[in-house]
TrEMBL record:
The chain crosses the membrane at residues 21-42, 288-311, 334-357, 377-398. Belongs to the ABC-4 integral membrane protein family. Residues 21-247 form the MacB-like periplasmic core domain. PANTHER family: ABC TRANSPORTER PERMEASE YTRF (PTHR30572:SF4), MEMBRANE COMPONENT OF TRANSPORTER-RELATED (PTHR30572). GO terms for cellular component: plasma membrane. It is found in: Cell membrane. The keyword Transmembrane helix applies. Keywords: Cell membrane, Membrane, Transmembrane, Transmembrane helix. Pfam families: FtsX, MacB_PCD. GO terms for molecular function: transmembrane transporter activity. This is Putative ABC transport system permease protein.
Length: 412
């Protein structure tokens, strides 16, 4: 009995026990689905995050207020004062680096917009910005126009709305441009509609309403706003020098004492992308661990089934040995059966994992990341299948090859 005949015999044995083969393959398929599905979902989410940062621009950095109190010398220092309008405008005037600078502030993240009898949920982000805000933040106008210096100077009641706000208020039946909506007790004329952005933020950018910065300041009243300064330098190669220059200018504006830490944070788009990549790296490790545990359970189930198969075919093994089959050929036959079953289950698991993983990443990223085909994880899945087949088939195969032919022929 040669190797080719062993393969044929293994396939005939698999075909003769279709129900057992299908159920065993399903066990392997579930394990591979969990492995490939989790890793594919993580890759899809990472792709969405990369797309979001690419839209923001790798040559962009932001100066924002420090959010938390910090510990220094064993003592918790008081929280730094927020960046006020004077700080922001002074920085914009002093920072001479050929950069595009946008000043903005979030008035509230729980505003509600109304148009006639229609109204949104109270989860609208009402933001005050200038005429460079959309370009620096990576937004695209679907229709209408951007804010103009005239809007900013005279604090005109105009607004640019996100796609989700437009869909909720106008339901695609009416052109939002030049319509008047009411937000936080004030009427605004819609002059622009933003293209859908979605992404890893969960669609928060699509629930935004942008108004002129001075309108936001007036609307806040006695509420103390904190302003964000976003700067876009001409090229990525200029960013390191620009960040150092911006930090120095902002320390002067904020009157930070020599030797004291910054009273603000500088957030670089590329640093946020790297931090996110590190997080997804840990998620991949966790996902691989979960998939490995699932596959370990599947391999134990396959081992049990192969042992049952050896017991059921004890008489057959005795006949083969009496006809001259060597222990090596017997081992090959059972190993081939185990590996073929694993590969069948693995192919099904890879396809299921590919679909489920992309479905999960699409839901999380609002379809921003696109369809991901992780060839590395698919190849890994098939390799793991072969390994599982070897692991689960080696002991039953060795046990079958060691059977005494005379005792095996007596087995009923």
């Amino acid at each position: 009995m040669n190797f080719i005949e062993n393969i044929r015999e293994g396939l005939r044995s698999i075909a003769g026990n279709r129900l057992r083969t299908i159920l065993t393959s399903l066990i392997i398929a579930i394990g591979i689905t969990s492995l490939v599905g989790i890793l594919t979902a993580i890759d899809g989410i990472q792709s969405s995050v990369d797309s979001s940062f690419a839209g923001l621009g790798a040559n962009t950095f932001s100066i924002v207020a420090r959010q938390d109190a910090f510990r220094r010398g064993g003592r918790v220092q008081k929280q730094d004062a927020p960046i006020d309008y004077f700080d922001a405008t002074q920085f914009k005037r002093r920072f001479q680096y050929g950069a595009t600078i946008s000043v903005s502030s979030v008035v509230t993240g729980a505003a509600q917009a109304k148009f006639g009898s229609k109204k949104t949920n109270p989860n609208i982000q009402l933001t005050g910005g200038d005429d460079t805000y959309l370009a620096v933040k990576g937004f695209t106008l679907q229709s209408g126009r951007n804010l103009t210096p005239n809007d900013l100077t005279y604090a005109l009641n105009v607004a640019i709305i996100g796609s989700e706000v437009a869909n909720t208020l106008f339901e695609g039946k009416l052109n939002p441009l030049n319509q008047v909506i009411r937000v936080s007790g004030t009427q605004y004329k819609i002059v622009g509609l933003l293209a859908k952005k979605g992404g890893f933020s969960g669609g928060g950018d699509d629930r935004m309403i942008l108004i002129p910065l001075n309108n936001a300041r007036a609307l806040a009243g006695t509420q103390k706003l904190s302003f964000d300064i976003t700067t876009s330098v001409p090229s990525v190669s200029d960013q390191d020098e620009a960040v150092d220059e911006a930090r120095g200018v902002m320390r002067q504006v904020r009157h930070d004492q020599l030797g004291q830490p910054d009273s603000f944070d500088v957030e670089r788009a590329d640093e946020l992308a790297k931090e996110t990549a590190n997080i997804t790296g840990y998620l991949r490790m966790g996902g691989f661990g979960i998939g490995f545990i699932t596959l370990l359970g599947a391999s134990i189930a396959l081992l049990n089934i192969m042992l049952v198969s050896v017991t059921e075919r004890t008489r057959e093994i005795g006949i083969r040995k009496s006809l001259g089959a060597t222990p090596k050929r017997i081992r090959e036959q059972f190993l081939i059966e185990a590996i073929v079953i694993c590969i069948l289950g693995g192919l099904g698991g890879v396809l299921l994992g590919l679909g489920i993983g992309n479905l999960i990443s699409g839901v999380v990223s609002q379809g921003k990341g696109g369809f991901v085909v992780p060839w590395t994880w698919m190849g890994l899945g098939i390799l793991v299948c072969v390994s599982v087949g070897l692991f689960a088939g080696i002991y039953p195969a060795v046990r079958a090859s060691k059977l005494d032919p005379i005792e095996a022929l007596r087995y009923e």
